[in-house]
Amino acid sequence: MPEQIYHEDVEVGTEITPLAKIATTRMLVQWAGATGDFNPLHYEDDFARAMGVGSPIVHGALKRAWLGQLITNWIGEDGRLKKLSCQYRGMDYPRNMKTLDLPHDGETWWCRGRVTKKYADGGEHLVECEIWVENGKGEITTPGSAVVALPTKRDG
Amino acid sequence: MAEDSLITDRLKELIGVPSEPIVFKVEEGAIQRYAQAIGDDNPVYNDPDVANDRTSGRLLAPPGFTGWPVKADRPTEQLFESLVKAGAPPRVLDGGVEFEFFGSIGAGDVLTATPRISSITERDTRLGKTMFTTAEISYVNQNGDLVLVSRATLIQF
């Protein structure tokens, strides 16, 4: 685990440690099983084509979960996530598998964010962040925001 | 409201009315499989031997996980059906979601999820006349504590 981040360590504009993800068809199958979301939009070519998205797309909820990991990694054990939101704006298409474990070459997604507000309220030391998932072309497909409470060095 | 509004009186009657609660059991194996599907190796989701003050000695659920099948979407589907029955447009897109966390969720919890429609608005978009519904679900644990509120946006056209 990375070192604990404190409220004193961040300012408006501070970048959240980015998180790289590679969506693969295998990952979408695993996500379907782990969540019980068996919508064929995420694994069947003909169905996805008929629904007008071309080919199977990455689950919005998986991208949301990536953003959850981005934030919880960043705030560490003593930070607390208070709010997390995102909007499903753009489609993302997984890489196909080349071997049992390895995907074909293709795009890498980056989960990123930065601090937009730093304040205290009700005895809590809070930080608001804008967060997003961007695809290999740098387009933001899943914008969102988060509010977290961070520990202070004085608490320690 | 214009005469050709999508928001019928029958739809307005649905706003704020709680639907039948749904019970979710949060199981340890389901938490692990969910964390693995994200690719999140945080030990508080994966290693039952990590027992400390933060986890109360149990696996914690990653944000948004409320038991298998996950959903958010299961109660939301229930709300969606009631919307369509009341005359809402049948085509739907998942616009996004907001989670507000009030307490931790972990292995062994039994959550009672109560869905309700908290707002309906409409406007013209490139999809045509479009309705935006906020489907709110509150999750209360076995101790009676509110631990999570989710607000999903349904885009109907």
Description:
Chain A is an alpha+beta fold and 156 residues long. Chain A has helices spanning 25-35, 45-50, 60-75, and strands spanning 19-21, 80-87, 109-121, 124-134, 140-149. A five-stranded antiparallel beta sheet of chain A has the order 1-3-4-5-2, with helices on one face. In chain A, strand 4 and strand 5 (140-149) form a beta hairpin. The longest helix of chain A is centred in the middle third of the chain and has 16 residues, at 60-75. Chain B has 157 residues and is an alpha+beta fold. Chain B has a domain at 9-25 and 71-156: Hotdog Thioesterase (Thiol Ester Dehydrase, Chain A). Chain B has helices spanning 9-14, 28-38, 43-46, 73-85; strands at residues 22-25, 92-101, 110-125, 128-140, 146-156. Chain B has a five-stranded antiparallel beta sheet. The longest helix of chain B is centred in the middle third of the chain and has 13 residues, at 73-85. The model of chain B has no long low-confidence stretch (mean pLDDT 89). Strand 2 (80-87) of chain A pairs antiparallel with strand 2 of chain B.
Question: What's the short story on this structure?
Answer:
Chain A has 156 residues and is of the alpha+beta class. Chain A contains three helices and five strands. Chain A is elongated and about 55 Å long.
Which secondary structure elements does this structure contain, and how are they paired or packed?
The complex is a heterodimer of chains A (156) and B (157).
Chain A: E1 19-21, H1 25-35, H2 45-50, H3 60-75, E2 80-87, E3 109-121, E4 124-134, E5 140-149
Antiparallel strand pairs in A: 1-3, 2-5, 3-4, 4-5
Chain B: H1 9-14, E1 22-25, H2 28-38, H3 43-46, H4 73-85, E2 92-101, E3 110-125, E4 128-140, E5 146-156
Antiparallel strand pairs in B: 1-3, 2-5, 3-4, 4-5
